[in-house]
Amino acid sequence: MRIPLRSVAALAAALGLLTACTISSDSSTADQADQAQNLAGRVVVLTTGGTIASTADETGALVPTVSGTQLIDSVRDRLGPDLDVQVREIAQLDSSAMTFRDTDAILRSIHEALRDPEVSGVVVTHGTDSMEETAIAADAFRPDARPIVLTGAMKPADDPHPDGPDNLTQAIQLAANKESEPGAYIAFGGATYPARGAYKSHTTDVDGFARNAPESPSHPAPLALAPLESTRVEIVAAYPGAPRALIDSAVERGAQGLVIQGMGAGNVGGELAAAMTDALAQGVAVVMSTRVPEGSVEAAYGGAGGGATLQSQGVISSGYLRPAQARVLLAAALATGTDPAVLFS
């Protein structure tokens, strides 16, 4: 039997043989038949809205309208008779509107689904705007070794050539794979990305995700599930001449943690540096990330706002994680009483 390309990609990712590989999204009828024969077990699909579940209204604006059952019905013939797919609708949201309350609801639903020992894995359909945040939250709070796979779409459900059905099939296929490595993944555009370091890399391309991470990154132990909703972590963007008021106002509003979107390898100007020092003195956790798409934050430079100086004062490097995911991990650390440095190591 010929194994379809999507099966190869999903299996390779599950075995840790790749971190991301791009596979053609074209799938023949024969390939789909092979996929159907290979899938077995039970997968729970949690739906939250997003473009994958959206259609155009009378003005042409996209709004989530497609139910979870309708999403599965669109790919049912690709899944075969031996796979039990259970659908649970969590929300109908544009993911840019999500808050930590919504993240908490998704995490609780993941844990509830995985209480069933017959479940092979969980799929979460999600908008792409904040998919990377939910993915790393799912990874940080993963309850066991079974895969958690997020997916979505760049094209709406009523597009003449929607990408959602292919992405959803790919995600279900990975979640059904009992050889998967522990952790959360993003399955999108024929590629599979481990959650840590994944980010949306293009606003419209159907393969619009990428990953900034070393080949063999460390993977901290999972945290006990805790709500994130009441944890205040803000992102502050550095730029030449940025005033300290950006940080001071965040602290005054009750921020428990700050993620700084630094310049270069993790540097800021003098005013922000002084405000960061004061925030640390007040017990506010501070993590340094960067606005640069690729590479790692390095404590290399001296001077008031240099990375080496800030690290010596207690600022934590986000490593290869960018601000969006760093914010979620810092919130997870604060919510569970975990040393943030452990999660960023």
From TrEMBL:
Signal peptide positions (record): 1-25
Keywords: Hydrolase, Signal
InterPro entries: AsnASE_II (IPR004550), Asp/glu_Ase-like_sf (IPR036152), Asparaginase/glutaminase-like (IPR006034), Asparaginase/glutaminase_AS1 (IPR020827), Asparaginase_C (IPR040919), L-asparaginase_C (IPR027473), L-asparaginase_N (IPR027474), L-asparaginase_N_sf (IPR037152)
Active site: 51
Xref: SMART domains: Asparaginase
Pfam families (UniProt xref): Asparaginase, Asparaginase_C
Keyword Oxidoreductase attached: no
Family that this chain belongs to: Belongs to the asparaginase 1 family.
Record protein name field: asparaginase
Biological source species: Corynebacterium mastitidis
